[in-house]
Amino acid sequence: MRILLFLAFLVGGAGAEAFQMSLSNISDSTGGNATAAANLIVNQFNNSIASTSNTKSFLGAVSNSSAMAGRSYLAQGADDHNNFSVALGGSLALALGEGGSLSSGIRFPANQLPPIGVGAQSGVTLGIPGRVIKIPRLDASRLTYRVSFSSLDLSSAIGRGMSMSATQFSLGGSYSVFNPVPWTPLIRYNGIRFSTGFAYSSFSAGYQTPFSLSQTSGGSTVTLNQNIDLKVSSSIFSFTNEAITGLRFLWFLNLYGGLGLDFNFGSSSLTGGSSGTMSGTGFSATANVTGDSASYGPSLVQVRFLTGMQFDLGPLGLYVQGQISTPSAYAVNFGLSTGF
């Protein structure tokens, strides 16, 4: 269960079938009873822990969480189209696969990958006013371009045989269809802003963990104790679009909400393997876990709802927003920006 919990909380980039366990170098002096027990262990692993349906649900959730974590760097908080800006932000995302439910609580079935994926990203985002690169028939004062990137490898910092890395790159822009309009001296309508662009997100995490199974047949007990190296990887490309509107209260608080429509491509996969000894009284064999899981991608089309707030504190803007996307994906985005 250690590796299952690890993957559930850290994840989150045409394969063969799911992981398979097989036996070799069999030595059995029990008349076949121990071999039967060993085959029960093999079947338990292949039909539950490494089953195709179990892997598909897990990796589908991983892909959707990676997609959610990699977007929102193109349209953070309230916008200022007249100045350059720099923002430092992060995102945390959660997605549920088949059988996953927040209402009934997040559960981790025994000897199965959980139907949940978790993604995390960070980004440094540069905002470029539209006057730098003018587009015919568009008002440059309503246009902002954005480019965002980050690449982190925390493997050395984590140690203990664990590895984790994440990369994101986004390129796009936003355009205000309706400019802000003061309603009262204290309240301003912030208009409607459309954003579109390309987002790429990758995430990988690996771990070496002890693995233990035991079965009995005909009075013979066989056990398996060995380390298994597993690595989950996700690489997701998204064409992301969203419309945002909101209100500004006093001179520092912006409340906003919006709707997004995203198209996702890419996949997530589970790789690794090991070789260890399966043993019992009068029995020994080599247990081999080999193969890469099939690759499973995110939902092709996702409808996304978002809401958030931004506090303008002098030259700094502090924003936080929440997002919900179909099917069953959730994200929190946060960051700090400044203009110049």
Question: How would you portray this structure in words?
Answer:
This protein is mainly β and 340 residues long. It has one domain (2-339). It is 14% helix and 57% strand. It contains four helices and 13 strands. It has helices at 2-10, 33-49, 52-69, 155-158; strands at 20-28, 85-96, 116-129, 143-153, 163-178, 181-182, 187-217, 220-249, 253-280, 283-290, 301-313, 316-325, 329-339. The chain has a ten-stranded antiparallel beta barrel. A hairpin with a 4-residue loop joins strand 6 (181-182) and strand 7 (187-217). The protein is elongated, with a radius of gyration of 25 Å. Residues 1-16 have low confidence and may be disordered.
The fraction of residues assigned to DSSP E strands is over 45%
Distance, first to last CA? 50 Å
- Write the H/E string, N to C: HEHHEEEHEEEEEEEEE
Integer count of domains: 1
Regions with pLDDT < 50 over 5+ consecutive residues?
Answer: 1-16
Helix amount? 10-25%
- Identify the strand order in the major beta sheet: 2-3-4-5-7-8-9-11-12-13
* Number of distinct helices: 4
Alpha-beta classification: mainly beta
Oligomer: single chain
Number of strands: 13
Mean pLDDT: 81
User: If you compute it from the alpha carbons, what radius of gyration comes out, rounded to the nearest whole angstrom?
Assistant: 25 Å
